[in-house]
Amino acid sequence: xxxxxxxxxxxxxxxxxxxxxxxxxxxxxxxxxxxxxxxxxxxxxxxxxxxxxxxxxxxxxxxxxxxxxxxxxxxxxxxxxxxxxxxxxxxxxxxxxxxxxxxxxxxxxxxxxxxxxxxxxxxxxxxxxxxxxxxxxxxxxxxxxxxxxxxxxxxxxxxxxxxxxxxxxxxxxxxxxxxxxxxxxxxxxxxxxxxxxxxxxxxxxxxxxxxxxxxxxxxxxxxxxxxxxxxxxxxxxxxxxx
Length: 242
Ligand SMILES: [Zn+2]
Description:
alpha/beta, six-stranded mixed beta sheet, 15 strands
């Protein structure tokens, strides 16, 4: 789905076993600076991602950059395979880079998460490490889509980032926010390592003027996006006093 000029959301099924569950990757087509994919699905989803790219008239080989919002296996999963086929440069936050590169073992799924979803164990075994070419920090500005800001939004993982596309006012939230049929919610407590930090991160997004929010889990929020973001930030403030 095209959500702004040169910005596409690629919705791919999570797995045949989990019907109705989707991942929402973002594709940024920038004729000057090359094509960028934000997050890379689960292991062995290269074909599904390649098929979704066709909608934007892009092939896997055209990818110049892959940005990981964080280390989780459903975000970096097919990264190594995509890099092999495209030679894309990989960007991620310095706090998650060692996990993505396999120098430290991934913080998730935690033993509790594995107990709830034992099928994750087999997926985890297929996870390949990916070399990070460029580490980004809060406030890093990428020459992409007319200016893209990196916003450090830790909590879900220690090095989670969100991206703000200044030209189109699109916020690529990764897992810092979730959505349900157009309704914006905070991060998923069942998958978030540090909920307090994650809620503080949501408040970091307060100064943004957003038209569209892309949540990796839940998809696009476009109706009253600013108001919905303020509501979730307010809820985050309220929860802090609990
Ligand atoms: Zn995720």
